[in-house]
Backbone:
């Protein structure tokens, strides 16, 4: 062990063990903070288990967990891929359950309860379902009575049936119509028209007219139309809601990246876990390896490497030591550090980003959904027509009553039932297909906006490239390579991992290996000291190592050899860029990384329009400039630094590996690695837009036939019911065309493969 | 089995059967000058035998079984055996009825064996005796398994099962004696009807109590189907049987409704009986046993719930299609047609859902006759509902009504759907219930399957041909505008079809006998076998039927 | 058709019962995990689950010492 005394400047921090345990303590406390306390004093937490697949998984997990003494009950939700665990005590430790699940082969994370805030129950959805049930009940019963009237029940029977229908219809409309009345009222209050205004008007007028007819023993009543209409529209609205809800729960199932709390060094020297809100500037916190920095801090002891890719877009990890500032959201890679808090959580870099994001979002607030745009045209036209009909009939016949009847029947038959369904049904079908492709869509307007894009802007790090680095160039001598590999294997630094992977040789015997966070790995091979790491650090033992950007390897007093680090492209990146270019949509790249790295990727992908070194504000400015020039840009990005830009863009997408803020800001999230998801989603959006346009066409064609009939006074309730149902079904059927029939053969083959894997 | 009751439970059972004996005696005394007296003796005998069975075990040792870790399967077992017993009896009757139509001499000149008396023995026997017992037994099984809870007590399940069988016995024997209120499928007289109300209420309460004890938060959809069967049948039964007894010492009663009103109520009942007795209950069976046996979840659970509400809502008003071209107002008939046609949607949704569940497990269907029973049942369900919706259209009905086409439709539903799904379920259930590895003879199951299928097909085709021939002959006019064929001409034309029908029925009946034998042999000969999971399923259960959306 | 005075209220009543049952099922979370619930019946053990109350008292007993 001669020659190995170089380790004197490898200061091993005295409290290394302390950090080690603080790190596990932080992890536990972090998990524990997700446990909710139930009213009966028990604890409950929700774990997200993405690998849940079938009833077998459900049974295994529930059986295993419920035999544990600390668990009262475990309930798996296969739809949401979650497990709700109820603990005996409120201060239970979910990490042991998580590791038990891991042992069963189901990696789990605690689901983000901040997002599923409404106590897990979806109250809006339930309200809608309830309204649907009421409307369905009313529609069925009124339909029975109406069919009876249409097929000839006359005289007293008819009047009685109308009366019963009225008694059913009034409460049903009052209850089930609320979503439309409220929305219409809100729109009118700000002097806008949306689709719900004509709907509400038609329903109310139909009801009023039918009531009047019933009172005077008239022959025709539209109760059936009014209630069936509500039923159809509510179904569309519910599906729409369901789609958003599904995306929301899928997003909340993604692992949370930003920490909820930190290990705070108390005045008495003990480390305790405190939630973020309780951390004040000046406090000292400990941050272990593989943890994210919770607030903006400056390092006071220890050294480490940082992955800032999510924060600044820099692809390559950077070392940090005493005095360096770490922004909230940075990932601490290798060493444990203690740091002084600079700003409290709500002023931290992360919070600043969030603020920028919400400001940026207002730019998009003016977007009007296509259905409402249609309503703005449609409502006045229809209402004017009804008025004209009324005036015309009064002039022609002088019969006020008949005129009112005809005019209102015009409103009823033109009631935008099909229009109300034209958009949501298409969007629901599309969102289902996107989900099967591994793309989550937050809401329908996103799909509309995505169909309109004429510019695409990519972030570089984490979007066009993957976080992992690859090695371009290294030493050729096998002996050196074996030694370098042995060193590289000792570290979890991404660069070291990449180096280890790139060397095919077996590692040689290595003694005394130590990792020096922020610098590299040292050890001895055959009695000679070796180092792999930062150039200036390796230069301590080797003369030629200085002044290199990339990691360097050297034997003591031997030549230094550099490893060239490259970024790996995300799979499908090339095709994604090309398919946009082929469609005539210019592609640009906005990167926070240094120019050299940005340009290299841009060249590889044939992107001409590149900007590097962009700050978050620069990115927003760039997108706003595009908007001001009248372009509609799709932004694809992942980082914290992209979050605001994602919000500022016309529409945005993020990978599931993105920062929490990025995921919140993006309209679409793709769950699989490949970047093909971006053009695939865009194509889907275009196809959907086409279907929506066709649906509008159908609705207009329907009206062209129906309105003249109605104005001529030829519309009976039966015709109204048939026409409205037919047009709705037509529209739904058209939307279903977005779902190509699955080929059973293919799925069967796939299934066999899957069962082989399982067997 | 009685030894599994605790002594207070045995005492309660004795009390109930004792009360039954007293009621029987009262009826026998009061009705001594009326056929009702005979029913009194039958009730007395039935309850007396049960009384002694219980009394015999009254002082046996207390049961040792740990009730918190076991389901209560005894009544289920008896129910299955009773169902099979009724199957053999009533289908045997069916063969006899069919043979009488082909060879009228088979009446042997007795009053009790006339067509009009044994035909209801067949219909009530298959619908209530076979179908009813099968429904009660499987519902006991399913409600416990899907709730993961034992039934709340051990007496009321026996009360429901045996009480229902008492009703069946009273009904069947009444037809032979000549007691009937002449409403199809509701022939028994007022006291039997009252008794059934009591039994049915206890059944409903038992079901709800079991569900209330459930340890599995979700109520599986099969339970909804069973519950609707119990609840709606109760209401239908009560309304349709509103009647005033001519005297409390005799069987005769008069309906509360008259004329076309009575007809409307009868067919409001009649079709809903088809809907809620012969359809929803058996759909419950399908939704439980088919996924179990196939080892894969139902194709679309959401659809099964939606079609439940669809079926329940649409069925209520279709009854008037039985009264086309009668004194019923035209609009009521049209109403029935409209809803009959719409009913096709949820019906086919159910049948399609069942078949899609099997999509991807066809090799199992090929190898497993039990699963094949269920698949064929789903197919016949789809066929007969399509046929029904078609026949409900007035012009079609003008041809089909009063002809054998209706009988063909009935049996494609009853044999193809109801009986097939029941036999499939019994084959799936028997090994589980008696803790046996498998049925005694799989070859016998295979034989039964082919006998049942060919029997049904022969029967149904014979009736289609016969019915359409009949209908066309009836409406053929000569040039001078008179009827071309006399009634006897049509009868002669029917004759070969009636022989074919009797033959098809015989095959079906033989299959049922084989089934009974096979179940008994399974109980007696197959060694005991306990498995941790009920219905151990093979590997494929591990993968979802549909590519699960992410 | 005076009989309708009977049949219509009965039908409406049954429908209303159905509606209430549906509301109840909605409130008691019957539709929260349809795909899971469809699968569950395939994997039942051949005995009832211990009642929730029994389990609770068990676990508290076990953790008490
Ligand atoms: C062994 C097989 C069977 C045979 C041979 C058979 C035979 C018959 C015969 C001959 C009739 C009288 C037809 C007429 O009046 O013209 C009949 C009626 C009926 N059978 Fe069956 N049947 C069999 C199985 C079943 C089964 C399994 C069910 C029900 C689950 C059933 C339900 C009925 C019903 C409901 C009727 C009355 C039909 C009507 O009124 O239109 N049968 N059966
Ligand atoms: C969509 C479903 C169905 C419709 C619309 C329907 C319709 C009809 C029609 C129109 C008739 C003839 C009435 C007549 O002319 O007298 C009939 C008779 C009958 N159907 Fe169905 N049917 C359906 C399903 C079923 C099923 C699944 C069964 C099952 C077993 C069944 C059992 C019967 C029985 C027993 C009769 C004879 C009633 C009698 O005694 O006259 N039906 N059905």
Residues:
């Amino acid at each position: 062990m001669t020659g190995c005394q170089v380790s004197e400047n490898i200061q091993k921090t005295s409290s290394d063990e302390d950090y080690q345990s603080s790190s596990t303590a932080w992890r536990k406390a972090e998990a524990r903070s997700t446990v909710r306390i139930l009213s009966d004093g028990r604890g409950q937490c929700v774990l997200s288990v993405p690998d849940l697949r079938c009833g077998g998984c459900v049974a295994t997990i529930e059986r295993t967990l419920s035999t544990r003494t600390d668990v009262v009950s475990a309930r798996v939700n296969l739809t949401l891929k979650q497990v709700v665990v109820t603990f005996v005590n409120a201060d239970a430790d979910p990490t042991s359950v998580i590791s038990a699940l891991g042992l069963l082969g189901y990696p789990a994370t605690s689901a983000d309860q901040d997002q599923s805030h409404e106590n897990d129950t979806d109250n809006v959805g339930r309200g809608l379902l309830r309204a649907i049930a009421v409307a369905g009940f009313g529609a069925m019963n009124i339909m029975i009575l109406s069919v009876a009237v249409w097929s000839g029940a006359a005289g007293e029977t008819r009047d009685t049936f109308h009366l019963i229908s009225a008694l059913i219809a009034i409460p049903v409309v009052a209850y089930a119509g609320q979503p439309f009345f409220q929305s219409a009222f809100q729109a009118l209050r700000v002097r806008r028209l949306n689709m719900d205004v004509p709907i509400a008007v038609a329903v109310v007028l139909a009801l009023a007219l039918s009531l009047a007819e019933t009172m005077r023993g008239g022959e025709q009543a539209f109760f059936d139309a009014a209630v069936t209409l509500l039923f159809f529209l509510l179904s569309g609205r519910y599906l729409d809601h369901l789609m958003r809800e599904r995306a929301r729960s899928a997003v909340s199932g993604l692992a949370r990246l930003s920490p909820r709390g930190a290990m705070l060094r108390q005045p008495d020297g003990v480390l305790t876990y405190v939630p973020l809100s309780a951390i004040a500037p000046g406090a000292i916190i400990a941050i272990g390896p593989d943890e994210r920095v919770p607030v903006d801090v400056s390092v006071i002891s220890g050294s480490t490497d940082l992955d800032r890719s999510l924060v600044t877009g820099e692809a390559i990890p950077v070392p940090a030591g005493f005095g360096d500032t770490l922004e909230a959201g940075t990932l601490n890679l290798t060493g444990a550090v203690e740091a002084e808090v600079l700003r409290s959580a709500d002023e931290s870099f992360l919070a600043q980003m969030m603020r920028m994001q919400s400001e940026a979002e207002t730019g998009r607030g003016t977007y009007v959904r296509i259905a409402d745009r249609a309503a703005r045209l449609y409502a006045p036209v229809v209402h004017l027509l009804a008025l004209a009909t009324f005036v015309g009939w009064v002039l022609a016949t002088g019969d006020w009553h008949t005129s009112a009847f005809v005019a209102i029947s015009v409103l009823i038959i033109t009631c935008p039932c099909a229009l109300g369904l034209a958009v949501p049904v298409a969007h629901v079908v599309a969102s289902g297909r996107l989900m099967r492709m591994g793309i989550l869509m937050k809401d329908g307007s996103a799909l509309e906006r995505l169909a309109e894009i004429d510019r695409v802007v990519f972030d570089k790090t984490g979007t066009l490239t993957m976080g992992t680095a690859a090695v371009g160039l290294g030493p050729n001598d096998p002996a050196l390579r074996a030694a370098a590999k042995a060193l590289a294997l000792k570290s979890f630094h991404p660069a070291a991992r990449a180096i280890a992977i790139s060397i095919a040789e077996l590692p040689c015997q290595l003694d005394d290996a130590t990792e020096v966070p922020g610098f590299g790995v040292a050890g001895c091979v055959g009695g000679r000291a070796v180092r792999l790491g930062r150039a200036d650090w390796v230069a301590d033992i080797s003369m030629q190592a200085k002044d290199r950007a990339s990691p360097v390897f050297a034997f003591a007093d031997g030549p230094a050899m550099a490893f060239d680090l490259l970024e790996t492209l995300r799979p499908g990146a090339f095709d994604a860029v090309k398919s946009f270019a082929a469609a005539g949509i210019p592609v640009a790249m906005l990167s926070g990384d240094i120019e050299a790295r940005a340009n290299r990727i841009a060249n590889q992908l044939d992107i001409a329009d590149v900007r590097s070194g962009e700050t978050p504000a620069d990115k927003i400015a760039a997108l706003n400039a595009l908007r001001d020039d009248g372009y509609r840009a799709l932004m694809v990005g992942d980082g914290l630094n992209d979050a605001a830009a994602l919000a500022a863009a016309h529409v945005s997408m993020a990978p599931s590996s993105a920062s929490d803020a990025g995921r919140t800001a993006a309209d679409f999230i793709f769950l699989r690695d490949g970047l093909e998801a971006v053009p695939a989603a865009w194509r889907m959006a275009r196809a959907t837009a086409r279907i929506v346009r066709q649906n509008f066409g159908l609705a207009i064609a329907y009206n062209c036939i129906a309105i003249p009939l109605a104005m001529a006074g030829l519309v009976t309730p039966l015709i109204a019911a048939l026409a409205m149902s037919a047009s709705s079904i037509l529209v739904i059927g058209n939307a279903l065309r977005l779902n190509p029939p699955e080929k059973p053969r293919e799925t069967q083959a796939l299934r066999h493969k899957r069962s082989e894997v399982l067997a | 089995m009685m030894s599994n009751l605790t002594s207070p439970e045995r005492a309660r059972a004795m009390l109930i059967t004792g009360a039954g004996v007293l009621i029987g005696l009262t009826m026998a005394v009061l009705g001594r000058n009326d056929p009702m007296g005979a029913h009194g003796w039958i009730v007395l005998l039935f309850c007396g035998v049960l009384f002694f069975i219980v009394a015999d075990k009254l002082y046996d040792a207390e049961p040792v079984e740990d009730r918190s870790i076991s389901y209560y399967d005894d009544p289920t077992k008896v129910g299955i055996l009773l169902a099979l017993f009724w199957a053999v009896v009533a289908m045997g009757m069916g063969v006899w009825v069919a043979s009488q139509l082909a060879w009228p001499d088979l009446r042997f000149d007795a009053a009790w064996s006339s067509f009009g008396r044994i035909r209801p023995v067949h219909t009530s026997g298959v619908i209530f005796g076979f179908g009813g017992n099968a429904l009660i037994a499987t519902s006991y099984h399913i409600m416990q398994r899907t709730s993961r809870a034992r039934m709340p007590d051990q007496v009321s399940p026996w009360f429901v099962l045996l009480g229902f069988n008492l009703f069946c016995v009273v009904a069947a024997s009444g037809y032979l004696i000549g007691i009937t209120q002449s409403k199809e499928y509701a022939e028994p007289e007022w006291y039997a009807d009252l008794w059934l109300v009591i039994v049915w209420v206890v059944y409903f309460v038992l079901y709800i109590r079991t569900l209330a004890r459930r340890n599995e938060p979700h109520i599986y959809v099969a339970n909804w189907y069973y519950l609707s069967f119990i609840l709606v049948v109760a209401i239908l039964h009560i309304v349709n049987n509103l009647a005033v007894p001519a005297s409390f010492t005799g069987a005769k009663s008069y309906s509360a409704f008259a004329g076309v009103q009575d007809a409307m109520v009868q067919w409001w009942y009649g079709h809903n009986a088809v809907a809620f007795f012969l359809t929803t209950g058996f759909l419950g069976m399908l939704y439980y046993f088919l996924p179990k046996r196939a080892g894969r979840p139902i194709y679309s659970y959401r659809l099964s719930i939606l079609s439940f509400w669809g079926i329940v809502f649409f069925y209520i008003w279709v009854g008037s299609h039985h009264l086309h071209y009668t004194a019923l107002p035209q609009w009521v008939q049209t109403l029935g047609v409209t809803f009959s046609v719409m009913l096709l949607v949820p019906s086919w949704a159910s049948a399609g859902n069942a078949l899609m569940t099997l999509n991807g497990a066809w090799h199992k269907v090929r190898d497993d006759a039990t699963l094949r029973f269920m698949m064929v049942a789903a197919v016949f369900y789809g066929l007969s509902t399509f046929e029904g919706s078609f026949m409900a259209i007035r012009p079609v009905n003008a041809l089909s009504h009063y002809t054998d086409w209706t009988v063909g439709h009935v049996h494609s539903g009853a044999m193809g759907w109801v009986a097939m799904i029941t036999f499939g379920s019994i084959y799936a259930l028997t090994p589980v219930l008696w803790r046996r590895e498998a049925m005694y003879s799989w070859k016998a199951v295979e034989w039964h399957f082919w006998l049942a299928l060919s029997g049904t097909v022969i029967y149904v085709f014979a009736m289609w041909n016969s019915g359409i021939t009949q209908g066309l002959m009836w409406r053929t006019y000569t040039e001078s505008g008179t009827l071309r064929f006399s009634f006897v001409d049509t009868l002669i034309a029917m004759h070969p079809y009636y022989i074919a029908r009797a033959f098809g029925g015989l095959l079906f009946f033989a299959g049922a006998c084989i089934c009974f034998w096979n179940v008994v042999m399974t109980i007696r000969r197959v060694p005991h076998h306990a498995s941790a999971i009920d219905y151990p399923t093979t590997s494929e259960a591990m993968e979802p039927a549909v590519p699960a959306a992410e | 058709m005076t009989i309708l005075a009977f049949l219509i209220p009965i039908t409406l009543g049954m429908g209303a019962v159905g509606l209430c049952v549906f509301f109840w099922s909605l409130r008691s979370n019957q539709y929260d995990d349809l795909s899971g619930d469809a699968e569950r019946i395939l994997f039942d053990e051949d005995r009832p689950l211990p009642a929730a109350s029994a389990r609770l008292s068990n676990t508290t007993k076990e953790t008490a010492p």
Observations:
- Chain A has five domains: 35-111, 123-251+367-426+705-736, 261-358, 439-467+569-671, 473-563.
